[in-house]
C-alpha cells in the first residue's frame, strides 16, 4: 500500500511571497521509494495523497521585528502608531535594534508628516540592517499579555468556516489544499502546519495517520539593499529616459550583465554570513526577477543560470515581459552532478527592439583539446587538459536592431549587433587559464568582425579585477610582457607574449568589480583604445 515515509522543508523560515514546496518521500506498493506526487486524478493502487496547509493562530499575539524578521519583537515605536505608519514597520526586537535603526527609521516619520496618504506598496516592505546611532522616539514594550489587534501585523480575520479546530489556546485556519503554499501578509508572525495523508480513492477516507510538520514563524520579505552604482566615462552620452524608464534616443539601447549565483553554489558553507532562508532559491528567484525586470534593459546577459532554472523560470517569466531567450549550458567534462543543475550563460533581448539573426557557441574545452593536439607525450597532454578543461563557455548572439540610428550615413543598411556573454574560470591560481579563455573569445569575435561591419558588445563575469591581465587585454588590446600575471604559465600557452593582442576597439561600459561590459565598433585600430 502507498505510504508516506518522510516530509520536510528545505528552508527553515517561511517568507511572504516565497513558495513553500515540501519534500515528500513515499513508498509505493511495490516497495520502491519515490518523491513523485500521487494526485487524486491519478491514484496508485487505489490510493492518492491529500495535502493541507494551516495557519496556527495563537491567542497570544506575536509581533515580528521589522529589522530582524526572524526575531520576535519586544518594542513598538509609538511615533509610527500615531503617524498611522504600517504597523509592521513599528516593531523592534531590542532597544539596541531600535537605536541602530533610528537614522533610517525616522525617514518614515518624515514621510508621514509631509504626506499623510503616502502608504503605497513601498510601505509594505521593511528595512534591512542599519548601522547608526541616536534615537528620539518613545517606544513601548510588548508583553505576552498584550491584546491590541495591531500586533497581528495587519492580519485580516478569516471566514469562521475556515477554522478547522481549536486546541490549547490555538486556532487552526486552513489556508491551502495543494502540495505547495505561498505565504501571504496575513501569515506574518504565525506558524504554518503542513499535513500529508494517504486517502482511499473509493471511500475518500484517510488511511493511517497524517504526516505533519510545523514551520518557523512567517517573516515579511526584506527590502533589497540599494545598489551602489558606479559611473563610468561616456555614461552621460546614453540618451534621456522617457516616462516609462526607456531611452528616448532611437539609436541607443541599454544592457544589463549580471551573475545571479547558481543555486548549486549558494550554500551555507560558502556564504556562512547569510541566513539560510535568504539563500533559498524560491526567495532569491523572486528578488532576481524583480530586479532584472525593473532595470528595463533592452539586452540582458546573465551568468550562472542553471539549466532547469532557465527552462522552468527565467525563459517563461521574462517572455511575459517581452524578452526572447537564448542559452548555452556549460560542458560537463568536469562537473559530475545532476546534468539539469549545470549552469551556463543566458542572453535575453526585447523582441520589440531586436530580432535574432545568428547564434555561436564557444566551448573552451574544445579549444583546449585543439591546443593540446600537438606531438607531446600522453602524460604531458593529460596534465595540460587537467589544467585547461574547466567547462567554461561563451554565448555569442548576432541581433538586428528594429530601431533606426539617427544620422546614419546609410539609413537602409541593416543594423546588426554582436553580443558576447561569458563566464571565465573562477580559480584565482589559474591566471594563465583566465587570460587564455579571454584571448580565445576575443579571437573568435575578431573573426566575426572581419566578416561583417558589426559592432561588438562583450559582457560577462571575468573573475578578474582592474589591472589584471584579462582586464588589460580587453581594455588596451594587449598585455604588458612584464605583467606579473604572465609569470603563471606552466603550459607555456601564453607565449610568445606578443600574441596576446586583439584589434577590437573596445571601451568599458560598466565596472562592478569583476562583471564587465565592453562595447566597440569593428573599425581596425592602430593602437590601444581609450
TrEMBL record:
<dbReference type="GO" id="GO:0004535">
    <property type="term" value="F:poly(A)-specific ribonuclease activity"/>
</dbReference>
<keyword id="KW-0540">Nuclease</keyword>
<feature type="domain" description="Endonuclease/exonuclease/phosphatase">
    <location>
        <begin position="256"/>
        <end position="521"/>
    </location>
</feature>
<keyword id="KW-0460">Magnesium</keyword>
<comment type="function">
    <text>Acts as a catalytic component of the CCR4-NOT core complex, which in the nucleus seems to be a general transcription factor, and in the cytoplasm the major mRNA deadenylase involved in mRNA turnover.</text>
</comment>
<protein>
    <recommendedName>
        <fullName>poly(A)-specific ribonuclease</fullName>
        <ecNumber>3.1.13.4</ecNumber>
    </recommendedName>
</protein>
<keyword id="KW-0804">Transcription</keyword>
<dbReference type="GO" id="GO:0005737">
    <property type="term" value="C:cytoplasm"/>
</dbReference>
<dbReference type="InterPro" id="IPR005135">
    <property type="entry name" value="Endo/exonuclease/phosphatase"/>
</dbReference>
<keyword id="KW-0378">Hydrolase</keyword>
<comment type="subunit">
    <text>Component of the CCR4-NOT complex, at least composed of CRR4 and CAF1 proteins.</text>
</comment>
<dbReference type="InterPro" id="IPR036691">
    <property type="entry name" value="Endo/exonu/phosph_ase_sf"/>
</dbReference>
<keyword id="KW-0269">Exonuclease</keyword>
<keyword id="KW-0539">Nucleus</keyword>
<dbReference type="GO" id="GO:0046872">
    <property type="term" value="F:metal ion binding"/>
</dbReference>
<dbReference type="GO" id="GO:0005634">
    <property type="term" value="C:nucleus"/>
</dbReference>
<dbReference type="InterPro" id="IPR050410">
    <property type="entry name" value="CCR4/nocturin_mRNA_transcr"/>
</dbReference>
<dbReference type="Pfam" id="PF03372">
    <property type="entry name" value="Exo_endo_phos"/>
</dbReference>
<keyword id="KW-0963">Cytoplasm</keyword>
<keyword id="KW-0479">Metal-binding</keyword>
<keyword id="KW-0677">Repeat</keyword>
<dbReference type="GO" id="GO:0003723">
    <property type="term" value="F:RNA binding"/>
</dbReference>
<comment type="similarity">
    <text>Belongs to the CCR4/nocturin family.</text>
</comment>
<keyword id="KW-0805">Transcription regulation</keyword>
<keyword id="KW-0694">RNA-binding</keyword>
Amino acid at each position: 500500500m502507498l505510504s508516506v515515509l518522510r516530509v520536510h522543508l528545505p528552508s527553515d523560515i517561511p517568507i511572504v511571497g516565497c513558495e513553500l514546496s515540501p519534500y515528500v518521500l513515499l513508498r509505493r506498493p511495490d516497495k520502491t521509494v519515490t518523491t513523485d506526487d500521487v494526485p487524486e486524478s491519478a491514484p496508485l493502487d487505489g490510493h492518492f495523497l491529500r495535502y493541507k496547509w494551516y495557519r496556527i493562530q495563537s491567542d497570544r499575539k506575536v509581533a515580528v521585528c521589522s529589522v530582524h524578521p526572524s526575531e520576535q519583537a519586544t518594542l513598538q515605536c509609538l511615533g509610527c502608531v500615531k503617524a498611522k505608519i504600517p504597523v509592521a514597520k513599528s516593531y523592534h526586537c531590542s532597544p539596541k535594534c531600535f537605536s541602530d535603526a533610528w537614522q533610517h527609521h525616522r525617514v518614515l516619520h518624515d514621510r508621514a508628516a509631509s504626506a499623510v496618504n503616502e502608504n503605497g506598496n513601498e510601505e509594505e516592505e521593511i528595512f534591512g540592517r542599519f548601522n547608526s546611532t541616536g534615537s528620539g522616539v518613545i517606544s513601548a514594550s510588548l508583553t505576552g499579555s498584550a491584546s491590541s489587534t495591531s500586533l497581528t501585523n495587519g492580519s485580516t480575520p478569516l471566514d469562521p468556516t475556515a477554522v478547522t479546530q481549536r486546541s490549547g489556546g490555538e486556532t487552526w485556519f486552513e489556508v491551502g489544499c495543494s502540495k505547495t503554499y505561498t505565504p501571504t501578509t496575513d501569515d506574518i508572525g504565525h506558524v504554518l502546519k503542513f499535513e500529508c495523508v494517504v486517502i482511499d480513492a473509493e471511500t475518500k477516507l484517510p488511511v493511517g495517520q497524517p504526516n505533519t510538520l510545523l514551520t518557523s514563524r512567517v517573516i515579511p520579505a526584506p527590502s533589497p539593499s540599494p545598489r551602489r552604482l558606479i559611473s563610468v566615462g561616456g555614461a552621460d552620452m546614453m540618451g534621456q529616459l522617457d516616462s516609462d524608464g526607456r531611452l528616448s534616443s532611437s539609436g541607443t539601447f541599454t544592457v544589463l550583465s549580471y551573475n545571479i549565483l547558481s543555486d548549486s553554489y549558494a550554500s551555507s558553507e560558502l556564504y556562512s554570513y547569510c541566513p539560510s532562508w535568504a539563500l533559498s532559491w524560491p526567495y532569491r528567484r523572486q528578488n532576481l526577477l524583480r530586479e532584472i525586470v525593473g532595470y528595463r534593459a533592452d539586452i540582458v546577459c546573465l551568468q550562472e543560470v542553471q539549466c532547469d532554472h532557465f527552462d522552468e523560470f527565467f525563459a517563461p517569466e521574462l517572455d511575459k515581459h517581452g524578452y526572447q531567450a537564448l542559452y548555452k549550458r556549460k560542458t560537463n567534462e568536469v562537473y559530475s552532478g545532476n546534468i539539469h543543475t549545470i549552469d551556463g550563460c543566458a542572453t535575453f533581448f526585447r523582441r520589440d527592439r531586436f530580432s535574432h539573426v545568428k547564434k555561436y557557441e564557444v566551448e573552451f574545452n574544445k579549444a583546449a583539446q585543439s591546443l593540446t593536439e600537438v606531438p607531446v607525450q600522453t602524460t604531458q597532454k593529460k596534465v595540460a587538459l587537467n589544467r585547461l578543461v574547466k567547462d567554461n563557455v561563451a554565448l555569442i548572439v548576432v541581433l538586428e536592431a528594429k530601431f533606426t540610428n539617427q544620422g546614419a550615413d546609410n539609413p537602409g543598411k541593416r543594423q546588426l549587433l554582436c553580443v558576447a556573454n561569458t563566464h571565465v574560470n573562477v580559480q584565482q591560481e589559474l591566471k594563465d587559464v583566465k587570460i587564455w579563455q579571454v584571448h580565445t573569445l576575443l579571437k573568435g569575435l575578431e573573426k566575426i568582425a572581419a566578416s561583417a561591419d558589426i559592432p561588438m558588445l562583450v559582457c560577462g563575469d571575468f573573475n578578474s579585477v582592474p589591472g589584471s591581465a584579462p582586464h588589460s587585454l580587453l581594455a588596451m588590446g594587449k598585455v604588458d610582457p612584464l605583467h606579473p600575471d604572465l609569470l603563471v604559465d606552466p603550459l607555456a600557452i601564453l607565449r610568445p607574449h606578443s600574441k596576446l593582442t586583439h584589434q577590437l576597439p573596445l571601451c568599458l561600459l560598466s565596472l562592478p568589480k569583476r562583471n564587465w561590459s565592453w562595447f566597440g565598433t569593428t573599425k581596425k585600430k592602430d593602437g590601444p583604445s581609450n
